[in-house]
Amino acid sequence: MPIGEICNRDVVIVRRKDSILDAAKLMRDYHVRGLVVVEDRDGEVAPVGILTDRDLVVELIAREVPLDSVVVEDVMSPDLFAVSENRGIWDTIQYMRGRGIRRVVVVNEKGSLVGILAMEDLLELLSDELSDLAKLFARERDREKETLG
Q1: Residue from 111, 80, 108 nearest 95 by CA
Q2: Domain extents for the chain?
Q3: Has residue 21 got a pLDDT over 80?
Q4: Which of 30, 41, 58, 76 could form a disulfide with 49 if both were Cys (CB 3.0 to 4.6 A apart)?
Q5: Residue 126 is inside which H or E element, if any?
């Protein structure tokens, strides 16, 4: 299954020059732990970084930086980990594990933003699939009881 089929397409975005306070308010209002930093390229929205709640805590709050003097690009991670929307689930999991990251940005063939995929999304999907497998054993047992009688 391509990752583009399961990624969250309702991505909360910010621009490089947005204030860090506005970014934090977006995280609060939308109940998200990260924002994708974007810029416009040839009429497309292209991801250029990511800003996480951890970035705010570690880089700003813990250092007692005055928040009204900071913009998103001052704190965002420019090392963007992105995968193609056509990439498979297992390959994406390996990619995330190999880089020690909890979320990846999903892009199309032009590099435009498609969605975001977090570790929590994968855990939810996999737990649902494992639950369905467990139910298969119970149905098989019930079917055997019916036929053996």
Answers
A1: 80
A2: 3-148
A3: yes
A4: 76
A5: helix 119-148
What's the mean per-residue pLDDT of the chain?
91
Q: What is the pLDDT of residues 98-124, one digit of tens each?
A: 999 999 999 999 999 999 999 988 988
Structure tokens given for 61: 């709050």
CA nearest 50: which of 123, 122, 118?
118
Q: Crossing angle of helices 119-148/89-99, nearest 10°? A: 130
Q: Which two tokens stand for residue 59?
A: 């880089």
Which among 34, 33, 37 has a CA at the least distance from the CA of 18? 37
| Amino acid letter, 78 | P
Sign of the alpha-carbon torsion through 140, 142, 146, 149: positive
| CA pseudo-torsion sign 32, 39, 81, 77 | negative
Intra-chain end-to-end CA distance of the chain, in Å: 40
Is residue 2 within 8 A of residue 83, CB to CB? The reply is no
What CATH number was assigned to the domain covering residues 3-148? 3.10.580.10
